[in-house]
Amino acid sequence: MVFTTLNFGGRGSSPGAFQIIVSVIVLLILTPVMSFVLGEECDWSGSGLGHNAERGVTPVYLRCGMGRVSWVYPGGALRVLLRLGSSGRQFRGCIKASPDFAGARLFLEGPRGLVPLLDPHPSPRVQCFYSRHGQVALYMEALHKSPATFPRQVAQFDYDLEAQPRSPSPSYYDHTQECRPCTNEEMTHAFCSSDLVTRGIIRGVENLDDLKVSEITVKVTKHLRESTPDELSSLAEDLASNEIDRTQSTTDGDKHKDRTQSTSDTDKHNVTVRLQVPQHCGARHGAGEFVFMARRKLGDLVLRCAPRLEDWIDVVRSENAKGSAHCLLYS
Questions:
Q1: pLDDT category, 326, cuts 50, 70, 90?
Q2: Strands 77-83 vs 57-62: parallel, antiparallel or unpaired
Q3: How far apart are CA 254 and CA 256, in angstroms?
Q4: Closest CA to 164 of 155, 156, 175
Q5: What is the pLDDT of residues 226-283, one digit of tens each?
Q6: Quick one: pLDDT band at residue 92, thresholds 50, 70, 90?
Q7: What span, in angstroms and rounded, lies between the C-alpha atoms of 283 and 281?
Q8: pLDDT tens digit string along 48-60?
């Protein structure tokens, strides 16, 4: 880059010309560097080839509730800083490695050092953690010093950050807050914004120690709502065909036809779903019918609220009378 004719404040120069030229030079120098180290708020994709990446640590700043990091030909290291926007909220984060995760190792930066999270071909592929002071730093280290000499490898993972209830201390979060029953306001919000809402009966609870979650198997008794089929894949199609307890106007002939359904047709309606909750909540088998509200998280359904049916009916009557909910509530 060569500049031949510069007039620094002499006769004929306009005021501020020198400052403008310097600003342009600074922008030209910094632009390629910034585009290389910064993600697009939610996702980051980059390569370990070029830019002498194998010799240093590349910082990546992401400020979304969910996104993806994809590192092709890993070289050197990445330091990925996760935050929930600029809110400073504490959060519980989870990452899920791609099936072909290779070429790097992933660590969580803790107060006393690095904690291993993922290795090549990781098992389990999902790991969770809690923020400190509203952020989490992940350290990705390439396995090879010269990535160009190895076959193409991709270290890729998806992340999901879930804000935790506010606490008196902004740097501390009581994990038992995840296990308390939802308030009426939280239930109505969950009903309107969840990926899946269904009435059901608990069939069993299984602890998945490696994931630190408990998985609740629920038999659907009445499907209430779900997000788009693309998001829930085949599960949405199964639930869409579930007619248990739905109010329908049928003719006597239709009713007779329903009574003569084959066993295979009847079994088709015995839909079950699996919902996850943090293991430390100590989920147990409960009698009776519940309303389960869950969100999609890294390919799994995570429970948000689960009031008993009779309690939810009371909430529906109360909140619909007020007209304060963001959608029509029903049971």
A1: confident
A2: parallel
A3: 5
A4: 175
A5: 875 444 445 555 555 444 333 333 333 343 333 333 333 444 457 899 999 988 898 8
A6: confident
A7: 6
A8: 886 555 568 999 9
CA within 13 Å, CB half, 98: 17
What separation in angstroms does the CA of 242 have from each of 22, 33, 194, 224, 247?
A: 67, 54, 19, 10, 12
Q: Which residues contact 61 (CB under 8 A, 6 or more apart)?
A: 38, 39, 81, 83
Tell me the three-class secondary structure of the chain, residue by residue: CCCCCCCCCCCCCCCCHHHHHHHHHHHHHHHHHHHHHCCCECCEEEECCCCCHHHCEEEEEECCCEEEEEEECCCCEEEEEEECCCCCCCEEEEEEECCCECCEEEEEEECCEEEEEECCCCCCCEEEEECECCEEEEEEEECCCCHHHCCCCEEEEEEEEEECCCCCCCCCCCHHHHHCCCCHHHHHHHHHHCCEEEEEEEEEEEEECCCCEEEEEEEEEEEEEECCHHHHHHHHHHHHCCCCCCCCCCCHHHHHHHHCCCHHHHHCCCCEEEEEEEHHHCCCCCCCEEEEEEEEECCEEEEEECCEHHHHHHHHHHHHHHCCCCCCCCC
Q: Which amino acid is at 278?
A: P
Length of the chain measured in residues: 331
Q: Give me 38's structure tokens.
A: 């910064």
Split at pLDDT 50, 70, 90, the class of 85 is confident
**Whole-number mean pLDDT of the chain?**
76
Query: Cβ contacts of residue 240 below 8 Å, gap of 6+?
Result: 223, 226, 229
Residue whose C-alpha is closest to residue 243's, from 263, 229, 224? 224
pLDDT of residue 243: 40
Please choose, from the candidates 156, 155, 48, the residue with its C-alpha nearest in 3D space to the C-alpha of residue 103. 155
pTM comes to 0.68
- CA 115 to chain CA mean position, Å: 21
Question: Is the four-CA dihedral 182, 186, 188, 189 of positive or negative sign?
Answer: negative
